Amino acid sequence: MLSEDPTKKSLTELGVTDAVQLAHRFYELRARFQRELARASEGEGWERLRDEWVGPEGSVQSRILANWIRTAPEHLKAGLVQDLQNFINEVFILSAVLQPLDQLRATDAAKIESQFRNLRGLFDREVKECRDEVDLGITERFWISPKSGVLKHIAANWRKTAPRDLVPSIGREENKLKAHITREIAERRATLESGAEESALARERIDLSLPGVIRPIGSHHLIRQVFQEIEDIFFSIGFSVVEGPEIETPYYNFEALNIPEFHPVRDDMDTFYLELPLFSDKNAAKTPLLLRTHTSPMQIRTMEKQKPPVRVIVPGKVYRRDNPDATHSFAFHQIEGLAVDTDITFCDFTGTIEYFVKQFFGPSVKTRFRPSYFPFTEPSVEFDVSCPFCGGTGAAAAGGTCSKCKGAAWIELFGAGMVDPAVYGFVNYDAKKVSGFAFGIGIDRLAMLKYGIDDIQVFFQNDVRFLKQFP
Ligand code: DAH
Q: Is the CB–ligand 1 distance for residue 377 below 6 Å?
């Protein structure tokens, strides 16, 4: 019967390398034992069988010891010893409960009680070994399965064959054992579950000391940053910020700024005119609308609304029908400035501009102005700054000419001037009493200059690789 007995080979020869494969081998052994036991349950057969399986010599047990345990890899040894122990217990238990009591020489109530006590001891040991619900399920089935559990065998083999006078005490012991097993299993199950809960809790506990999920946070666009930088500088000398509409009328964008229709300066400001459905209504104002070509219209709107003194700056977007290239975009940014009061001189004007330029580029730069022309200022000037990159020398540090000012030593910054008295006429200011200055700074150009950017288009492409460089 043992011609192909796996216990004659070592675990290595059987190819058993882990606990699962090992458990499978024991499962097969157990099944084989039960088959043989069922066949040998008559007469003396069971004693021979017991010797064959768990006897001291030449038995399955001794072969497991010699061939499996002694040569087992270290990591399997402890489990293997436990499996063998469980298996031997099972063999003892089954071989006992499959016999009539008299074959076990239990012929009186005291001896019967001791048989039950033995069983109970074996059960107690087994249930304590259960490490999880799977173990517990196997134990539960082994003992109280209604088809083939130990208790079922006791009823069939012990009680049924017992002399009448012993039946009541067997029944009592059976009930006691069953109650004990049921209670112990329930208790063990509860312990295991709470243990499992605890370890699950430990696993799922939120670790408040771990860093959180870091979500990328955006930053202000470089243009917005430059706006703020300039605003802060003008705040510090008493200017305030106003903003105005990007859709304007020709009156504010041109006429009130002393740019009548057919004035040649309109050629420099190729304008987007709007055809809005709202204004095709025949009752609507007949005035056309446009996208403002500069922030200067806010000079007019501000002076219309308030009496002098006026000290405002106007950051905002402006639009022109320019073809896009490295220095042109159909939309760009300006900051308008306007200061009007009763006693503002050309000195106040140049002093203010110089203060701003030094704050923005650093205290070592110089400023200069050159005559220019704007219809809304008289006199008009262009402000230049001494090149901040070559220190106003026009020469690059490494030799050759400075690439920023192209050797000119000066960089053109923006247009400005004293407010033309004609403009005051449009806003009901008394040109004889008030005076002031205005300026219009191109922000994109300034940002490109300061941060070494050579293509205005990057401001509008929203490429994160660019934006990230200005956190
Ligand atoms: N509005 C002008 C432009 O966009 C810039 C400008 C020049 C504004 C002189 C001013 C100024 O306020 O005084 O070209």
A: yes
